[in-house]
Amino acid sequence: MRLLVTGGCGFIGSNFIRHVLEEHPEDEVLNLDKLTYAGNPANLADVEDSPRYLFHKGDVCEADDVAMAFSWGPDAVVNFAAETHVDRSISGPETFVRTDVLGTCRLLEQAREKGIRFLQISTDEVYGSIREGSFTEKSPLQPNSPYAASKAGADLLVRSYTRTYGLDAVIVRSSNNYGPFQYPEKVIPLFVTNLLEGRKVPLYGDGSNVRDWLYVGDNCRGIDLALRSGLSGEIYNIGAGQEKTNLELTRAILDILGAGEESVERVRDRLGHDFRYSVDSTKLRELGWSPRRDFEDGLRETVQWYRENAAWWEPIKSGEFRRYYMEKYGDI
Ligand code: NAD
Ligand code: DAU
């Protein structure tokens, strides 16, 4: 299969491309990525010489860039390209609407013209927060942040293309991912690298918010299954069933790195902070998927990866990210 992957230089996209090249020796991948602050070609340094991997720098919002990528003749497109950080969407929503909604629309248009399968990488955040139980694919969309609202807008556009034009499209909605190559603005790599630098970790509010942690490799297997076996027009949730409060997560990280509670700085809560996300992934499990990585093992391996790959994250943290960090957290 010839796969057009957008946003493949980000965290999940790069892990997914590596997964496809390893698991499907007949597949070829074209990666269309704008290389925003979150896109890093170093995430794919080990595959850049592969004859089955091509990179094209371009913006999913630009019709010419998208047309150029589609002229390669893909059999399917997997859309990871997005602005992804909730906090940044709260301080500046516009780029989220542009990339996550308009970018998806541009890709849908080309997929419709070429008549190829479209896999939209969505998120459990489109359902909003849930105190008890889990959302199914039939639950209403109640996004609470500008990021989640933009992703929900994209999902609705995808749905409209299946109904209006009969586009062969599938949506996956996963819970919080963690693992190697995650940009250090997200809580796990931020806390791990802060501790490795001898800094404190900024915990929002009282730390009681809950997230369901999915190892990125498990998500990549789920995405791959939905791409190849998902039914047209369907949505598949991908959750790990490994819920932790932020305080439990923080203590697990402190424990692995031998740090104490004095390394935790309680900071002002996120505006509109969703209390808990939880999705029911029975539908994908019925296709044969289940998560393999136990959270404690996955977290330990992830911490080890950041320990061994300071050459990857140190330039990020001392570059443009430093200004963002200082404005947001001050001298923590
Ligand atoms: P990321 O922020 O690490 O990477 C995003 C990538 O998209 C970067 O390579 C960036 O350069 C690229 N990009 C951004 N704007 C672009 C544009 N206009 N044109 C082309 N490329 C552009 O993101 P991630 O965490 O890997 O998330 C990937 C996808 O998965 C997103 O759609 C996100 O909504 C979804 N998702 C993420 C998680 C998670 O826990 N990280 C969970 C569920 C769903
Ligand atoms: O649920 C899937 C979503 O998970 C994805 O769609 C998003 O792209 C991804 O960024 C992630 O969103 P979250 O907001 O859940 O992830 P984040 O790592 O930003 O925060 C996780 C939790 O940790 C959340 O409850 C807020 C808290 N947190 C976060 C940061 C950055 C802190 O306590 N301190 C922090 O400094």
Overall pLDDT confidence: 98
Helix content: 40-55%
Helix and strand content put the structural class at alpha/beta
Question: What low-confidence regions span 5 or more consecutive residues with pLDDT below 50?
Answer: none
Strand order of the largest sheet: 3-2-1-4-5-6-10
Using only C-alpha atoms, the radius of gyration works out to 19 Å
Please, how many domains?
A: 1
List ligands, each type once.
nicotinamide-adenine-dinucleotide, 2'deoxy-thymidine-5'-diphospho-alpha-D-glucose
Top-tier CATH class? Alpha Beta
Assign an overall shape.
Answer: globular
Q: Would you count the extended β strands for me? A: 12
- Termini gap: 47 Å
Question: Mind telling me the CATH superfamily name?
Answer: NAD(P)-binding Rossmann-like Domain
Q: At CATH's second level, what is the architecture?
A: 3-Layer(aba) Sandwich
